[in-house]
Design goal:
415 residues; Spore Coat Polysaccharide Biosynthesis Protein SpsA, Chain A; 3-stranded antiparallel β-sheet; 14 helices
C-alpha cells in the first residue's frame, strides 16, 4: 500500500495537484484506496493538455468548408421512396437493426430533478414520460415489422441507478426487458481556471460525462458492441432521449443508407433562419462534418444556392445511423474535445462545500458528430421539423415542454 501511495503522490506532484495530496494524506482505509484507484485511471497528461487548449483560440478557415448534398424526404419520387422503404424494412425484419438512446443527462435546465428521460411531458392531460414516448415509438416499429429491436440505453454514472430503478418500476413501459441493455458512458475530471482538479463531497476527484461523442467508446468498453455482433446487428441508430418526435426506426433513412452504400447516415431539418443556433452539415477538407453555429462565419451562414435555399441549412438533429463497422472504427479513435466553462460546486481545502455564482471550471466533451470526419461520405435525408424535431431542452421558450407538447399533439392528430 505504501508504494501505491508514494507512486500516486509522485503523479500528483508532476501535475501540480498538491491539494489532492493533502486530501490523500487525510484519508484512511477504504476511502484512501478508492481515491488512489481513481487517480490511477485518470490520464493526467490528457487533462492538462485539454486545460492548456482552453487558453488557445481555435480558428476555422472559411476556404475549407463546402456545402453537402442531401435528399429531401418530401421530394422523393414514389419509386425512390418505395425502394428505400423496402430495403430498410427488410434489414429490420431480418433482425439487423439496433437502437441506442443517449440518456446520460439530468433535467436541470427543465427544472426537473432526476434523469432527463424521467421528465413527464404534459400531453393529452395525463402526460407521458420521455422514456415512455420512445418505448411507444419502438413498440410500434416492432409491431409493424414483426421483430423486437434491441434497445441500448446509455446513462451517466450520475443518473444510472435512478434510471434503472425508474425503468424497472414502470416495467420498461411494456418493452421486453430482455431486449433492453443499460450501460454507462465514460467521464473526465473537471478542472478549475488554475489547472486544479475539483474535489467532490465523497472525497473523490469530481468528474462529469465526457459528452455524447463518448457514446462510441462506451459501447465498446461496456460490451454492448460485442453483444450487437453476437446478435447479428448490421445497423445501429443513435438518438437522444429528449426529442419526442424522434423516429428511431425510419425505414426510408435506413434504406437510403443501404442503397447509397455508406457507413453513416443522418436525418436533418432545414434551419429556421440563417442565424438559428444549431450545428449544420457541411464538408470540410472533403469529409463530412457538422459545424457549430458559433464557428460558421456569418457570410457563409447567409449564403444561398441557385434555388434560394441556404447553402448551409441542414441542421443536425441527433438522428444518426451507422453500420456496426463504423461504430467499431470510431470507438477506437480519439475524438477532439471541446471545453465548456461552467459552474461546478466543489470541496475546498478546509472541507467546505463551495457553490459558485459564476462559471469556475472546465468540462471537456467530445461531440458525436466529430466522428463523421473519419468517413469519406454521409447520406443525409432532410425531414420536416413538424414531423421529426420536437426537443425538450429549456424550461421556457424555444425547445421547451410547451413547444414539444404542441408539436407532439399536432403530429399525432395528423397521423
Amino acid at each position: 500500500m505504501m508504494d501505491r501511495v508514494q507512486d500516486t503522490i509522485e503523479i500528483l506532484k508532476t501535475y501540480h495537484q498538491e491539494h489532492i495530496i493533502k486530501l490523500l494524506n487525510k484519508l484512511e482505509g477504504k476511502a484512501k484506496e478508492e481515491l488512489i484507484d481513481q487517480i490511477g485511471k485518470i490520464d493526467f497528461h490528457q487533462i492538462m493538455e485539454l486545460y492548456d487548449n482552453t487558453k488557445k483560440e481555435i480558428k476555422i478557415k472559411e476556404n475549407k468548408i463546402e456545402n453537402i448534398p442531401y435528399l429531401d424526404k418530401a421530394k422523393l419520387t414514389k419509386e425512390q421512396k418505395e425502394q428505400f422503404d423496402k430495403l430498410g424494412e427488410t434489414a429490420i425484419r431480418n433482425g439487423e437493426y439496433a437502437v441506442v438512446t443517449m440518456a446520460g443527462g439530468q433535467g436541470t435546465r427543465l427544472g426537473h430533478t432526476g434523469p432527463k428521460g424521467t421528465f413527464k411531458l404534459d400531453v393529452y392531460g395525463k402526460g407521458k414520460y420521455l422514456f415512455e414516448i420512445l418505448a411507444e415509438n419502438l413498440k410500434e416499429a416492432n409491431r409493424k415489422y414483426g421483430v423486437t429491436i434491441p434497445w441500448y440505453i446509455m446513462t451517466s454514472k450520475e443518473n444510472h441507478d435512478e434510471t434503472e430503478a425508474f425503468l424497472k418500476k414502470n416495467n420498461y413501459f411494456g418493452y421486453n426487458a430482455k431486449n433492453v441493455i443499460i450501460f454507462t458512458q465514460s467521464e473526465l475530471p473537471l478542472i478549475d481556471t488554475r489547472g486544479k482538479l475539483l474535489i467532490n463531497k465523497n472525497n473523490k476527484i469530481k468528474e462529469a460525462s465526457d459528452g455524447n461523442g463518448g457514446t462510441y467508446s462506451s459501447l465498446r468498453i461496456s460490451g454492448c458492441l460485442a453483444d450487437m455482433k453476437e446478435k447479428g446487428i448490421k445497423w445501429i441508430f443513435i438518438g437522444g432521449v429528449d426529442n419526442v418526435l424522434l423516429k428511431m426506426a425510419d425505414v426510408t433513412l435506413l434504406g437510403m443508407a443501404i442503397q447509397k452504400n455508406v457507413q453513416i447516415a443522418s436525418k436533418s431539418v432545414v434551419k429556421a433562419n440563417p442565424h438559428e443556433k444549431v450545428g449544420v452539415f457541411c464538408k470540410m477538407n472533403g469529409h463530412p462534418k457538422v459545424i457549430e453555429y458559433a464557428e460558421l462565419p456569418e457570410k457563409m451562414a447567409e449564403e444561398t444556392d441557385t434555388n434560394g435555399e441556404l447553402k448551409y441549412g441542414e441542421s443536425h438533429i441527433m438522428c444518426n445511423l451507422y453500420t456496426i463497422e463504423a461504430i467499431e472504427k470510431v470507438s477506437k479513435e480519439h475524438l477532439m474535445y471541446h471545453s465548456a466553462f461552467k459552474k461546478n460546486s466543489y470541496i475546498d481545502e478546509n472541507g467546505r462545500e463551495i457553490i459558485p455564482d459564476t462559471p469556475n471550471s472546465y468540462k471537456f466533451e467530445s461531440f458525436i458528430f466529430d466522428a463523421f470526419e473519419f468517413f469519406d461520405d454521409i447520406a443525409i435525408l432532410r425531414g420536416k421539423r413538424e414531423d421529426d424535431f420536437a426537443p425538450v431542452k429549456n424550461k421556457e421558450g424555444v425547445d421547451s415542454p410547451k413547444t414539444a407538447k404542441e408539436l407532439y399533439e399536432k403530429y399525432w392528430k395528423r397521423h
